[in-house]
Amino acid sequence: MTRARPTRGLAALALFAALCAAGPATPGMQSSAAPAPAARPVTPAVPQDGSRADASPAPELVLTADDTEVTRSCTLVVPPGTILVDDEGDGVLQVRADGVEITFAPGSVLRGAPADTPLDGLAGVGIAITGAKGVVVRGAVVHGFKIGIDAIEADGLLVDGCDVSDNFAQRLRSTPQAADDGADWLEPHDNDAREWTTRYGAGIALLRTDDATVRGCRARRTQNGLVLDRVTGSRVYDDDFSFLSGWGVALWRSSENVITRNALDFCVRGYSHGVYNRGQDSAGLLMFEQCLHNVVAENSITHGGDGVFAFAGREALGETAHGARRAPDAPCGDDGNLFVGNDLSSAAAHGLELTFSRGNVIRENRFAENAICGIWGGYSRDTLIEKNLFTGNGEAGYGKERGGVNVEHGARNLIRDNAFSGNRCGVHLWWDDDAQIAKLPWAAVFGTDAEDNAVVGNRFGGDTTAIELRATTRTLVTGNRFDDVGEELVVEGEAPRREGVPVVPATTAPDLVVLGQTRPVGARAPLAGRASIVMTGWGPWDHASPLLRRVSGAPGLHTWELLSAPDDARVTLDGDGLRLRRDGTRIEVALDVDRHGVFEYTLRVEGSTPPLAGSGRLVRIPWTVSVFPCDDPRDDPAVFDAAAASPAAVTRTLDALQLRYAGGGPSDLPAFADAVPRLPSDHFGTRAEASVPLGAGRWRLEVESDDGVRVTVDGEVVLDDWTWHAPRKASVEIDLDAPRDVHVLVEHFELDGYAVLALDWLRVP
Fold this sequence. Notes:
The protein is mostly beta strands.
């Protein structure tokens, strides 16, 4: 059925505006139907204006050497141009005395490496605070380290107004033109040995540091903004950790913290709008392994891999050796957290992923245009989801996982008084046969049934499907309003109850405490929508710095885009036999139509700060490519040869060997779309031959394949991976004493599932 988009969407927006106009909830606000016990009192360590009782001037300390220990309060001066390498990894500036206050003098920058050092080459720690209580770091500018500010067992710490930009980040292998590279996926499931900062670094990292405050800080061109590792009762507010390639704020075993009025936007990796939406476990806010009773309020957490990615943890599930079976009333996940007044929109995956957790409250948030769904709450229990706005979610969902609220195997969740507009599905609850999870100790204690959930008093307008239930038990659906939806209710299995009183979650969410003076929600409204996620080789573009990026490529033609550069910026091209054409922000690099071979080039932009450059290779090689139905040829080479010589083989001449079949087959590619009969999507083979003109020197031949591949160069087999395997890359190198034509034969077979055969040439320096 065609999805309608009536004015109901405007009504939903109006509802959310009315909620916002009412102002933030007052401290102590709880669900009237589900009163919660108060959390441990949270009192700021310092006044919000940053004042201290002792305001006397501090002496100057001129920082000129590594391993400088600070024993008393000071104004820190770093001479211009100074670079201080942390040779031992224990901090250039070291603080081990209680009550020390360090204020950076204007213009002072603690830099651990030259500014042009690649981010993945950065190491060491800028400021190390170890075992010291009540330390203050104010106005620090720390660049060029693995960790900018690292605090261990530093209770009462205040980090105020610091800039921790330009610290460690991994170079991304994923590109806009192809599917995401598996090497870019993050690994958040282990951190008891500080794996997060060891692997990925951080602008600021706190370990076993309670009652801390991080406010007014900023990070750009860095992988992670702030890592809280086993931190309790701390405050994070008025910070801007945005446009990062990992996590804005990351919590591990951290509880009773207040995270309010921060901008955690564009923390994303592995995304290409309209091509793929993976996110690779990046998030504006990460909460892993039993993070309890935290307040997350009035933050802007948009355009992330996920907005919030919260997972109970492997120990909580009983997957680790030290995981323990818990009593049903014991904390066992990311339990009792409060999410209120946040913007959780435009994520590559989910606005809020909150799984295997209980007693959470999700209230008055905005979930708009998240690719898969607004809330993904697999195995969640006793969750209160109320007065939120869900609009336009699920456009790039995966099958039935799509839309506003998706909960698999959830129990006693109450979804009430929300506004749904234009989602692929408003609310989707289901149970399926998930045998592996059913075996876990967590499931033995808490169960896996989708039961006793309630969908009550919500408004649906223009959603493709309003409510979908699959194999749920005792679901209450009542008091909802439907305006011009495709389908009001889709049910597989037991019909829902129409009457009754919902099970109100016995929530343990803390009192609402909102700290901060900024108002980040809505501040980046002009960048709404996932199309604003523009990835570079290091992370998301900040929409302010000059950017030169390649946006498309074809044999003989590359198209680039120049953004945010000065009007008088000049573009030049280095490369033989190539043509440059510029039309405003659009730049084309092209080959003459009669040229064949591999042609390297460099684009340079002069007049921008910093200067920009981009390089590429135009490859036009005439390949004779045959595709054909083929049974499994692994055990009998004659099977492949016979299939290639059969009348069913279809042959074409292509300018490049870039056959990205994905889940389809040859007939799904334009070059073979006219083949009659249609070629199969599984059990087919490919044979390609070409005479490749190459210059003298060393060349690397890169091959991406799924499934088997064999490459022969000048009659010699140089790559033989004749196996059934997932997509993977391999390479071989050849040396040429003089320019000549190289004969290449590529053979490939596909058994089932995903398929790709792609070949590229690179000159080795």
